[in-house]
Amino acid sequence: MAWIETVVNGLLLGGLYGLIGIGLALVFGVMRVVDGAQGEFMVMAAFFAVIVLAAAPDLHPLIIFGLAILFSFCVGYVYQSWIVNRSMQSSDPLAPLLLTFGVSIILRSVMVEVFGADLRGLQLGSLSRASIAIFNINIGVMPLLTLATSIALFLLLQWMLKRTSFGRIIRATADRRDIVRLFGVKPDRVYACVMAMSVALSAIAGLFLAARASFTPFSGVERLLIAFEVVVLGGIGSFWGPLIGGLALGVTQLVGLKWDPNAGLLYCHLLFFIMILIRPSGLVASRS
């Protein structure tokens, strides 16, 4: 029963990892850009929530989450409009990657200067400690909400991309940027909206992660690494790949910790390395 509980909790953790990867996958799928600042955006959203909670302790967690997500959406739009779009005009494909990593270093330094390097956490009261028992398996309410939110956001994003006119514009811009201009579409604005959604999704992941574990301004590197592994493990170009990759990493991490308490993320990295060797296309191969 203990191993079953470990696997179940691993799946719940995997939902969070899938949520961490979806923002990175969205940006890469539409713009073919690896955003090196995604981890810092997750941490920044968590710090924003901590500030709001300290200023108004009686605010409902949903309001705090909503304000942090809205803040992140606006930051993402400005970030793409004023910074990343300009680098994408360069003929060098490495320019956006180097720029976004530079932005991540700047954001990290600013957060260290403003908040210090001490450990922080997002305290949500009894909700963080609540659990329910299902078939004699204790399941935390927050991890369960995280998995449900992750699946709901994947479904919502899939519906938006396939069923709405804006989603069709996004897919058309991703395929033929030059052609959509003939129909009056401005790719730079589309990219700004996509980045805004990506940063907002990353903020949701960062908030759930901050409610689960402590963080510092330096935590963004670890979060970016998880996001990268989730996307590659699930399959680059596959919509549901990040969720599948996240579930695989979550189960691997907790099973590894059950077997070796000092392992940390070692077995996650080993799984990623082995999959790169035997199946570079990922667990879910994308369709052309």
What brief labels describe this structure?
single chain, 288 residues, mainly alpha, ABC transporter involved in vitamin B12 uptake, BtuC, two-stranded antiparallel ribbon, 3% strand, globular
Would you spell out the secondary-structure blueprint of this structure?
Layout: H1 2-31, H2 38-55, H3 61-88, H4 94-115, H5 126-129, E1 131-134, E2 137-140, H6 141-163, H7 165-175, H8 177-180, H9 187-212, H10 220-234, H11 241-259, H12 266-278
Helix pairs in contact: 1-6, 1-9, 1-10, 1-11, 2-3, 2-4, 2-9, 2-10, 3-4, 3-9, 6-7, 6-9, 10-11, 11-12
Number of domains: 1
Determine the N-to-C terminus distance: 42 Å
CATH architecture: Orthogonal Bundle
Mean pLDDT: 91
Total number of beta strands = 2
CATH class: Mainly Alpha
Q: Based on Cα principal axes, name the global outline.
A: globular
Instruction: Describe the strand arrangement of the main beta sheet, using strand numbers.
Output: 1-2
- Ranges with pLDDT <50 over ≥5 residues? none
Order of helices and strands: HHHHHEEHHHHHHH
Q: The CATH topology, please? A: ABC transporter involved in vitamin B12 uptake, BtuC
Rg over CA atoms: 19 Å
Number of helices: 12
Helix content: over 70%
User: Given the helix and strand composition, which structural class is it?
Assistant: mainly alpha
Beta-strand residue fraction: under 5%
Largest sheet: 2 strands, antiparallel
Structural commentary:
It contains twelve helices and two strands. The protein has 288 residues and is mainly α. It has a single domain (2-278), classed as ABC transporter involved in vitamin B12 uptake, BtuC, CATH 1.10.3470. It has a two-stranded antiparallel sheet. A hairpin with a 2-residue loop joins strand 1 (131-134) and strand 2 (137-140). Helix 2 (38-55) packs across helix 10. The model has no long low-confidence stretch (mean pLDDT 91).
